[in-house]
Each structure stands twice: as structure tokens, then as C-alpha cells.
């Protein structure tokens, strides 16, 4: 047995789970299958990571670079499912898309473990089908989604199957694809709509992992040669500032969360638009840290909405006294998002800004200023949600054990992610340096 | 390593890690939702602050006994990757030791005071959790040997301060004031971060020891001295925000919304002097450019003058004390701008100790005056009438009085010219975002609105 066996098992469990949850007759069974499939899949993915770390090599070689990713991805899927309220599965107006979630988990595992460029483009084309199916099932209009995604699909499929495109065209096509998929300004409108109308869990697990970062890393040299990364970096810097500013004026918690994700994703993309290994290391490490922190934030948003419905930021809610755990976790995740000292994103943020400033002082200042704006809006939202009002305690506010466990895992990862084997910055840097640059075909 | 060096390292570790261990303990208790008894919290806090204080006293004793002038302590190896390095190091000299001694002594006094003052307060544990972060932050900031480690402490102090101002968080005003403080502190953090980058760019590292050893003459000979002047400007901006210099003074009276012990220790004693401490620490950079040094003097004196006027028109004792504090801080900053070193340090120590006492006495001052009246058998203490310019009714006096009553209009000026236009631009952008979304989705804009927006 080797790590690849566990990785395959992890994906297979998800796929089987998706099948059985579709066939299950009762909602209770669906819930049972979904949570346990996700749990065992996460266990297998973690086992593959440990086996790889201990040196058990298989016939396909995972690099040190991506070995922790399937484990992280699976763990986060499991954590999200673990704290999904029972009422979402049973008796909800709109059925919880358990099978789609497991499919999404399987795809995510494949993306994290895949090494071929063509496979990555193909998976990138397949990924948005999951939220699209959910939108159709819910009977929501899909026009805005299709307006953005039809060109993106065409680009992704062209890049996956065509070998004779010139470097320039490939570079620009990748840029457009990344702008749409990551919601870089001006290709972001569909993301706001998606989180509003699609199942929130499904939408956040689609948006937060920032999958195209892997594509940008793989095609880094090509993007540099064709100057496509330069244009992408201009779009990214405009997005960072614009979305950071928009987080300040949002009046709905979901929209705030959307723009927070978009601003931070754009920051990661800006980091990847470089050929300097140090900057790429910072951006990739930052992406992994933000992945955890944003999932944590999303869990809290969902937990609050499960108790109180959609939340407005017009007035103060004062949830701290009834759910202090959520308040503390919100602060910790928020600090994790802005790279506060002690969190795993801290050094990555410092390194990223430190690398960007010499090449472009303007970009560096925008990053530092935007980070300050984001941290201001985070504390503002914290005060709106958890302070400013006295709320009578009721049993429905009580944070359940499952939610507690999920939040403890997230908090542990926010503070301790850097200390896990192969997840530190030095290993990432070493592997990026060794991996060199690749061309798409 | 000889015995003295081992002892120095041991005491340094005591001073630095004891507050950090306390912060970790309190945070873990919070995260795991363990409700600690008041007695246990008080014991743990006092013990750990005492250990840290004992560590500092040990260091001072060793310095005196061995005639030492400086000592570096590196608890963790430098994080080094290509051109990037992060040095988490500490540097002990008379400045850092004096400030850390003052900080830990006052923290110990306040911890002792708070355990009774906060007795049966629902947020007792939260108060001490935030307090422990503050103590760790101030110790790291005051003892740091590099700009990076100072930045870590600086941010910890900022976060704990903002959350402590909003300690009584079931009311709206404390949260608004906490947010106001946080905004100013984040500007300060951003300026310090950029200054840290410029220092690295100019000198290749951010060690204070190198800067202090070179002095302003040595730094002037560096080819990158213009960059260092840029760093100096940013350092001054960071200090101005932290020390509430004009025009950032608006947060200081707002910060009085927090519990009295925090007002005493943060805004009367330590936080408010942290900016001055930073300027003092990096004085060679400030003195590099005479224009920058005179700017520092000007802002210091101007803040002192304006705060002195405003303090005369305040109606509550905490606000009076806040502006009185600011007057002294302005003078301290001016002293630093003049290139003095010992005088500002003595001024900081004396002023911080006095203000801590005054802030702690503030809630009971009326009772104190009443008892004084009763013991003297007089009531004319109440018949205090304004004297000097406050007693005049001429147009100039009224204008000054109105200026003082509006606290110099600093908050409204910043809001009118910076905050409001900035927010308006993004509100407009948000409006167009929603419009565009509804057009692309092909739905009625009102259907795209979230239920809360509709309501």
C-alpha cells in the first residue's frame, strides 16, 4: 500500500458517497452517508499525505509541493459538512445537495493531486457544472452564470485539447479564464449572484479554494514571456483595492463575505503574477492560509444564518453573549485573513508585500492599504454582529459540539498550519525552485 | 557562554515568555470555553506579570552589577529565505529596560487593581484575556531589537486596545469608539509596515542596534539616506497615530469608554507613550533630516497647545485627564524632535506614573472632594469659577471656547474631508454593482436584493 492507494480511495469514497446519497430513500440516510463519506475520504487523504511524508513511494509521484493539498482540501470539506445543521438535511424547503458536495470534493481532490496541465484545464471546466446544476435544481435564473461561463468553458476546453496555439494566445486565454474563474474585476458579478442564489455551502466550497492558482503556477514562464501576467497583475491590483473598499459599505453579511473573498483572492493572484520564486512562495503559502481562514469565516456566517436567517449589517445584533464561541472564532478567522502576527498567513503577507514593493512601490502600497481596509471592515462587521445589543439567551443559540469541533480544527489550522510537515514556507520555496517552469503542452 | 550571559538569557526569557504564556493560557481557556474562577484568573495574571517583572529586575541588576550597556537576546533563529529575513530579536539597553520596567510595574499594579475593580463583572475573563494580550504586546514592543518584532508587539497592543475600549459591548457607543480607535491604529500599522520595508531596503536589515551605533551622522553617510528619511516620515506617522498627535487626537477621549483600569494603563500610561518610545528608539533616523526633526517638534508643540486649550473646556474628568495627558505627550514628542534622549525618557516615566494614579482615582474623585469638603467644613470648593481667558466673554475668547468645546473639530474635519468622500465613492460603486448584477441576471433589481436590504 502506498499514498496513491489512499488518494484513489479518498476520491472513490466521495464518488460512491455521491451515488449512494442520491439513491438513499430517507433524508436521514442521505445525511449519514454524506457526512461519513466525507469523513472517510478526509481520513484517506490525510493517510496519503502521511504516507508520502514517511517516504512510501508509489508508481505516481506526488511532489512535496502538492502532497498536503488533498489532505487539507478533504479536511476542510469534512469540517464544513460536520457542522452543517441537521435541519439543512432534513425537512428543509430546498434539499441539501449532498451528492453534489461529494462530487465537488472528489473533483477538488483530483485537482489538488493532478500534475498534467490538460487535466487541470479539463477539471476547471467541469468544476462549475456543480453549482450550475444546483442553480437549475433550485429554479434560479442562470443567465448571469452562463454569460460568464460559456466563454470560460470554451477557453478551458480549447486549452485542454488544443496543442498548436501560439504562446501569446495561450497566455491571454489563461488570463481571461483566470479573471472569470477567480472573479477578478470585471469578471466578478456572477460570484456575488452565485452565493446569493446557490446553496451557500456549495458556493463557498467552489469559490474559496482558488483553484486557478495551480494553473498560474504551472504556466508561470509562459505568462511571463507573453506579458499576460503583467496585464493580469493590473486587473488584480484594481480588484484588491476595489473589493477591499466595497467590504466597507456592505449592508448584508453574505455580500460582505463575497467581497472579502474576492479581495483576498485577487491578492493571491497578484502574488502569482511574478517569476520570482520568493513571491510565488509567498502567494502560494498565503493561498493555503487564506483557504483555511475563509472556510472558517464561511462556517461562522452559515452558523449565524442557521440561527437567525439572513443577516443585515444595518443594525447591531449583539450575538456575543449568546454565542461567544462564534464571536471568538470570527475574530480569529478575521485575523487569519489579514495575516495578524501569530497566524499562519502572517509571514506570507510580510513576504508578499516585501517582494512586491521593490518591483512596484505603488502595488505594494495598495496591498498594505487594502489590507488595512479589510481589517477595518472585519472589525466593523464583528461589532455589528456580536456587539451593540443585549440579546436574551435562548437554547437555540447554543453552539453544538459538532460546530465546536469544526471551529477548533479551523483555529488549530490557522495558528498551527505552518508547523505541520511539508506545509512550511521553506518546503514550498524549495519545491517551487526545483519544479522550474513548465509550458502548457 | 559564561554564567552572566546564561543569567541574562534566563531573565530575558522570564520577562518575555511569561506574558506570552499567560496570553496563550487565557486564549486557550477562551477557545475551549472553559470558565475560570475569578480567583484563579487573578492569581495566574498576577503571577505571570510578577515573573515578567522579576525578570526585568534581574536584567537591570545584572546590567548594574556588570556595567553592561547592551545585550541582545535571540529566542528563535532568524527566518531567512533568499533576500527575505524576519528577525525576531530583543535588545536590552537603558531605554528598553526603563520602558519595560515601567510597563511591567504599571501592569502589575493595574492587574492588582482590576481584580477588585472588575469583580463580578460578566466579562471578567474576557477582560483579562485581552489584558494579557496587551501585556505581551507592550513587552515585545518595548524590548524588541528589530523593527519586525516591534511590529508584532505594536499590532498586539492595537488589537487588545480596540477590543478593550469596546469592552462594554452590549452598548453601541463603546463599539463605535473601539472601531474609531482601530481605524487610526491600522493607519499606524500600515505606516510602520512600510517604514519597516524601507529600513530593510536602506540598511539590509532592521536591527535597532545598527541604527543606534551608527547614529544620525553615520546614517547620513549611507548612500540610501534619502530612503531612511522616507522611513523616518513613516515612523513619525505611525507614532503620531499611536500617540494621538494632532490631527489624530480624536480617538483619545473616545477610548475612555473602556473600563477605568484600561483607560489608566493604555491611554494614560503606556499605549499613548508607545509612539513617543518608537520615536525615541529610532531618534537617529528622525534627526537625519532637520526638516523632519522640526516637523516633529512642530506637531508636538501644536498638539500640546491645542490639547491644553481643549482640556479647559471638558466637562467630565476622564476627558480632562485625556487631554491633559495629550498636552504632556505633545511636549515629550517635541523634546524628542529637539534630539534629547534622557529628558523625554524621564518625562515619560514620571508622566505615565502620575496619570495612572490620576485615572485610577478618577471614578472616586467626587467622593474624595466631598469628603474633603466635609472634613474642612467648607463648601466653597464647589464654587469654582472659570479664570483667565475662560472667564472672558469677548469674541476671541468665545471662538476659542467653542473650538475647545468641539475638541478642535478634528474628528469632523477628518470625517468631512477623508472618510465621507471615500465611503461615498464605494457606496456609489456598490449601487452600480447591484444594477449591473440585475441587468446581467435579467431579473428585477428588487428581486436581487437580499431580504434584509428590502426591509
Mean pLDDT of chain A, rounded to whole units? Answer: 85
Q: Mean pLDDT score of chain B, rounded? A: 87
What would you report as the Rg of chain A, rounded to the nearest angstrom? 21 Å
Strand adjacency order, main sheet of chain B: 1-4
Oligomer: heterodimer
| Global morphology of chain B | globular
- Strand % of chain A is under 5%
Structural category of chain A is mainly alpha
Strand content of chain B: under 5%
Sheet of most strands of chain A? none
Please estimate the helix content of chain A: over 70%
Count of DSSP helices of chain A?
21
First-to-last CA distance of chain A: 32 Å
The level of helicity of chain B is over 70%
Tell how many strands the DSSP assignment of chain B holds: 4
* Number of separate helices of chain B: 20
Please provide the ordered H/E string of secondary-structure elements of chain A: HHHHHHHHHHHHHHHHHHHHH
Please, could you describe this protein's structure?
The complex is a heterodimer of chains A (441) and B (455). With 441 residues, chain A is mainly α. In chain A, 74% of the residues lie in helices and 0% in strands. Chain A has helices at residues 3-23, 27-54, 68-82, 86-89, 98-113, 117-126, 129-138, 143-161, 167-182, 189-197, 200-207, 212-218, 220-225, 228-249, 253-272, 277-308, 324-337, 345-359, 361-386, 401-416, 425-435. In chain A, helix 2 runs parallel beside helix 5 and helix 17 (324-337) packs parallel to helix 20 (401-416). The longest helix of chain A has 32 residues, at 277-308. The radius of gyration of chain A is 21 Å and the shape is globular. Residues 437-441 of chain A have low confidence and may be disordered. Chain B has a two-stranded antiparallel ribbon. A two-stranded antiparallel sheet of chain B has the order 2-3. In chain B, helix 5 (147-165) runs antiparallel to helix 6. The model of chain B has no long low-confidence stretch (mean pLDDT 87). Helix content of chain B is 75%, strand content 3%. Chains A and B meet through helix 8, helix 10, helix 14, helix 16 and helix 17 of A and helix 5, helix 6, helix 18 and helix 20 of B.
Amino acid at each position: 500500500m502506498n499514498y496513491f492507494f489512499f488518494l484513489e480511495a479518498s476520491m472513490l469514497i466521495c464518488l460512491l458517497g455521491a451515488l449512494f446519497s442520491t439513491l438513499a430513500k430517507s433524508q436521514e440516510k442521505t445525511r449519514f452517508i454524506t457526512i461519513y463519506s466525507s469523513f472517510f475520504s478526509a481520513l484517506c487523504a490525510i493517510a496519503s499525505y502521511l504516507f508520502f511524508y514517511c517516504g512510501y513511494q508509489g508508481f505516481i509521484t506526488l511532489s512535496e509541493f502538492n502532497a498536503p493539498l488533498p489532505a487539507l482540501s478533504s479536511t476542510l470539506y469534512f469540517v464544513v459538512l460536520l457542522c452543517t445543521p441537521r435541519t439543512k438535511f432534513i425537512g428543509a424547503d430546498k434539499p441539501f445537495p449532498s451528492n453534489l458536495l461529494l462530487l465537488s470534493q472528489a473533483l477538488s481532490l483530483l485537482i489538488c493531486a493532478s500534475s498534467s496541465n490538460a487535466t487541470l484545464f479539463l477539471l476547471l471546466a467541469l468544476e462549475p457544472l456543480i453549482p450550475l446544476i444546483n442553480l437549475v435544481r433550485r429554479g434560479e435564473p442562470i443567465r448571469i452564470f452562463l454569460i460568464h461561463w460559456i466563454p470560460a468553458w470554451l477557453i478551458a476546453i480549447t486549452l485542454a485539447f488544443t496543442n498548436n496555439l501560439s504562446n501569446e494566445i495561450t497566455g491571454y486565454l489563461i488570463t481571461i479564464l483566470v479573471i472569470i474563474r477567480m472573479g477578478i474585476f470585471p469578471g466578478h458579478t456572477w460570484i456575488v449572484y452565485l452565493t446569493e442564489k446557490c446553496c451557500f455551502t456549495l458556493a463557498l466550497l467552489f469559490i474559496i479554494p482558488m483553484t486557478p492558482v495551480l494553473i498560474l503556477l504551472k504556466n508561470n514562464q509562459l505568462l511571463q514571456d507573453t506579458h499576460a501576467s503583467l496585464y493580469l497583475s493590473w486587473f488584480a491590483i484594481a480588484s484588491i483595492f476595489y473589493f477591499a473598499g466595497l467590504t466597507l459599505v456592505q449592508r448584508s453579511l453574505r455580500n460582505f463575505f463575497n467581497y472579502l473573498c474576492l479581495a483576498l483572492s485577487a491578492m493571491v493572484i497578484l502574488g502569482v503574477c511574478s517569476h520570482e520564486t520568493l513571491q510565488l512562495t509567498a502567494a502560494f503559502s498565503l493561498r493555503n492560509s487564506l483557504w483555511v481562514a475563509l472556510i472558517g469565516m464561511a462556517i461562522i456566517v452559515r452558523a449565524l444564518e442557521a440561527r437567525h436567517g439572513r443577516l443585515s449589517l444595518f443594525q447591531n445584533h449583539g450575538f456575543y453573549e449568546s454565542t461567544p464561541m462564534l464571536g471568538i472564532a470570527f475574530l480569529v478567522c478575521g485575523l487569519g485573513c489579514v495575516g495578524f502576527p501569530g497566524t499562519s498567513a502572517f509571514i506570507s503577507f510580510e513576504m508578499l508585500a516585501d517582494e512586491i514593493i521593490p518591483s512596484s512601490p505603488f502595488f505594494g502600497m495598495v496591498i498594505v492599504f487594502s489590507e488595512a481596509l479589510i481589517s477595518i471592515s472585519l472589525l466593523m462587521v464583528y461589532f455589528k454582529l456580536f456587539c451593540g445589543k443585549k440579546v436574551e439567551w435562548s437554547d437555540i443559540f447554543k453552539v453544538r459540539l459538532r460546530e465546536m469541533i469544526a471551529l477548533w480544527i479551523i483555529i488549530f489550522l490557522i495558528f498551527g498550519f505552518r508547523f505541520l510537515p511539508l506545509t512550511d514556507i521553506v518546503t514550498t520555496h524549495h519545491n517551487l525552485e526545483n519544479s522550474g517552469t513548465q509550458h502548457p503542452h | 557562554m559564561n554564567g552572566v550571559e546564561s543569567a541574562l538569557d534566563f531573565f530575558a526569557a522570564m520577562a518575555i515568555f511569561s506574558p506570552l504564556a499567560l496570553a496563550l493560557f487565557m486564549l486557550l481557556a477562551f477557545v475551549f470555553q472553559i470558565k475560570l474562577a475569578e480567583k484563579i484568573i487573578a492569581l495566574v495574571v498576577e503571577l505571570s506579570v510578577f515573573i515578567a517583572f522579576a525578570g526585568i529586575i534581574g536584567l537591570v541588576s545584572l546590567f548594574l552589577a556588570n556595567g553592561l550597556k547592551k545585550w541582545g537576546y535571540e529566542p528563535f533563529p532568524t527566518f531567512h529565505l533568499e533576500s527575505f529575513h524576519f528577525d525576531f530579536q530583543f535588545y536590552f539597553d537603558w531605554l528598553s529596560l526603563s520602558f519595560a520596567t515601567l510597563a511591567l510595574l504599571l501592569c502589575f499594579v493595574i492587574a492588582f487593581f482590576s481584580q477588585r475593580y472588575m469583580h463580578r463583572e460578566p466579562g471578567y475573563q474576557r477582560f483579562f484575556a485581552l489584558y494579557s494580550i496587551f501585556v505581551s504586546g507592550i513587552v515585545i514592543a518595548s524590548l524588541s531589537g528589530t523593527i519586525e518584532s516591534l511590529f508584532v508587539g505594536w499590532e498586539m497592543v492595537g488589537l487588545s486596545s480596540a477590543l478593550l475600549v469596546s469592552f462594554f459591548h452590549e452598548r453601541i457607543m463603546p463599539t463605535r469608539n473601539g472601531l474609531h480607535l482601530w481605524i487610526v491604529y491600522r493607519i499606524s500599522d500600515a505606516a510602520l509596515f512600510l517604514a519597516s520595508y524601507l529600513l530593510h531596503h536602506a540598511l539590509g536589515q532592521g536591527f535597532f542596534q545598527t541604527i543606534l551605533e551608527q547614529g544620525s551622522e553615520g546614517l547620513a553617510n549611507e548612500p540610501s539616506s534619502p530612503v531612511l528619511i522616507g522611513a523616518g516620515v513613516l515612523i513619525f506617522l505611525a507614532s503620531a497615530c499611536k500617540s494621538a498627535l494632532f490631527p489624530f487626537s480624536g480617538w483619545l477621549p473616545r477610548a475612555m469608554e473602556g473600563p477605568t483600569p484600561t483607560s489608566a494603563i493604555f491611554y494614560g500610561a503606556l499605549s499613548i507613550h508607545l509612539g513617543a518610545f518608537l520615536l525615541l528608539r529610532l531618534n537617529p533616523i528622525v534627526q537625519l533630516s532637520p526638516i523632519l526633526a522640526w516637523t516633529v517638534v512642530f506637531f508636538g508643540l501644536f498638539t500640546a497647545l491645542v490639547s491644553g486649550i481643549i482640556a479647559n473646556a471638558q466637562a467630565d474628568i476622564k476627558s480632562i485627564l485625556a487631554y491633559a495627558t495629550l498636552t504632556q505627550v505633545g511636549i515629550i514628542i517635541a523634546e524628542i524632535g529637539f534630539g534629547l534622549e534622557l529628558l523625554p525618557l524621564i518625562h515619560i516615566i514620571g508622566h505615565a506614573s502620575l496619570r495612572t494614579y490620576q485615572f485610577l482615582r478618577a471614578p472616586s474623585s467626587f467622593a474624595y472632594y466631598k469628603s474633603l469638603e466635609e472634613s474642612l467644613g467648607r463648601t466653597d470648593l464647589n464654587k469654582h469659577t472659570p479664570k483667565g481667558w475662560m472667564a472672558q466673554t469677548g469674541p476671541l475668547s468665545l471662538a476659542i471656547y467653542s473650538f475647545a468645546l468641539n475638541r478642535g473639530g478634528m474628528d469632523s474635519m477628518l470625517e468631512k474631508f477623508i472618510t465621507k468622500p471615500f465611503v461615498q465613492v464605494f457606496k456609489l460603486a456598490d449601487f452600480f454593482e447591484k444594477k449591473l448584477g440585475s441587468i446581467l441576471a435579467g431579473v428585477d433589481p428588487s428581486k436581487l436584493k437580499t431580504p434584509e436590504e428590502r426591509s
